[in-house]
Specification:
Blueprint (H helix, E strand, L loop, with lengths): L18 E2 L2 E2 L24 H29 L8 H9 L11
Antiparallel strand pairs: 1-2
Amino acid sequence: METSSQAQVFWAAQFETTAENGIIRLPADYPELANASLRVLVLSSEPSKAQAEAADRARRQARVERLRAAQAKLVAANPFRSIADPVQWQRDLRNEEERPLPGRP
């Protein structure tokens, strides 16, 4: 079996177009490409549905991690450690005995 020692030569063309039903139309400026074998590299300015969903998942996961970190800080701070009787503390905070509740005599 013989192998060719000829190197492949590539050249590039850059243009903007819209794919319609999976077909990419070549500009008239490149008639030599009309029936040529091409290697195509696609750069899209619009994210695919899968990319958009992956970005949404990453944003949600980052938010969850931030919330967990904030929760861990609150737990570590233990801001209510000095409250011996939580029920009494809430009553004192609301001043239930000194202030009538709305809509009640």
